[in-house]
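User: As part of a screening pipeline, I want to sanity-check one entry by hand. Below is the sequence and the SMILES for S-adenosylmethionine. Please return the complex as structure tokens so I can compare it with the automated output.
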Amino acid sequence: MITVIGLDGGPLPRRAAAALSAAVCVAGAARHLEAAAGHIADGAERVPIGDLGAALDAVVAAGGPAAVLASGDPGFFGVLRSLRTRGADPAVVPAATSVATAFARIGLPWDDAVVVSAHGRSDSGRGVRRALAAALAHPKAAVLTAPGRAGPDAFLPELLRAGRRVHVAQRLGTDDEDVVTLAPGQEVPQRTWADPNVVLAVDPDRALAPAMAWMPGHQGAPPDWALPAESFEHRASLITKPEVRALALARLAPRPGTVVWDVGAGSGSVAVECARFGARAVAFERAPDDCERIRANARAHGVAVEVHQGEAAANLDAAAARLAPDAAFIGGGDDAVASAVLARRPERVVVALASLDRVRPLHDMLAAAGYAPDGTQMQASRLSGLPNGSLRLAAANPVTLLWGTRTPSA
Ligand SMILES: C[S@@+](CC[C@H](N)C(=O)[O-])C[C@H]1O[C@@H](n2cnc3c(N)ncnc32)[C@H](O)[C@@H]1O
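Assistant: Here is the complex for your manual check:
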């Protein structure tokens, strides 16, 4: 029998203490073996978890009762999954997860929080990027960090810049527990953070969702999308029409953990809709009054959109250096702008074109950059009423939508 025991700094439950003292083999991180030393039988084999796989193999192969010590709730981003995949059928004695403890320390409910883990895939930076994107798109987030490149410093600059109040909860449940609170917009302090730690990020204006959520985190696809033009403030004609936006959204695939750029954003309707799907939305627009309108549209829809004012091509590099895009919608700008977007290598690109002259060059540009180009012309005619009460079709201007998905090797 294997017992997995969660530790949170509190006293060990009786079941856990009994399982530990009976175990002939106990695996755990060095700090956990030390914390539970008084309960482990003298002759028991102690297996420090450096290489998790090897340690769990040793536990599974132990010739008697064994125990695994883990942090918090072993069933929540913990060792339980790895043990189960080895065919073990362990008993579990959980403790409070570090996320619950961290929110308890700042006195906030967390049933409306999105919880993301930055563990894994850190070689490519993908783990950090998607965790950061999801945290930025949600008013309340907890990030399970990992030592090194996925530590608090990978998250703090963007979270603080986005107006979040950030708490770094270090070594919870130990004698040197420390929760450091950073104010929105403040500089990131030059210091080292003690491991392990959890980063909480809270939008101070939305620390309490208006009502209790029924499901933690992002609530899934919005109740309606491809919203009518009237749902957005816009300058006449400078809005992607709902029919075109619907297909663009389908091809951009906005969702939690992704970053979507809206380049030449106009009203920002695409950015706002992507944010409603849970993506981190970033809009680029030249005119200051359009930028104001994008911000107003984001506010009206209760979502976060980062707005960059100025010539798009000049702003893309700096934005990409902070958080590279997964998908980009190009609703405005010339071929130089499109080429600058492609240079940032988003996986998906969608371009809306009114001018036929640009279709061929952009199609070829997508192909040359390693994307599989595709496209369609969209000509919608909406139902409209006539004064006599009969229906007519009101034609909207045709638009060519081009898109491309980057082939994996490109
Ligand atoms: C693999 S996850 C395990 C999560 C664990 N099952 C739980 O319920 O807290 C490891 C991460 O949990 C967080 N963590 C675990 N113990 C912690 C503690 N005592 N204080 C702060 N964060 C902790 C850190 O983000 C750490 O990198």
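Points to compare against the pipeline: Residues 288-300 form the longest helix (13 residues). The longest strand covers residues 371-378.
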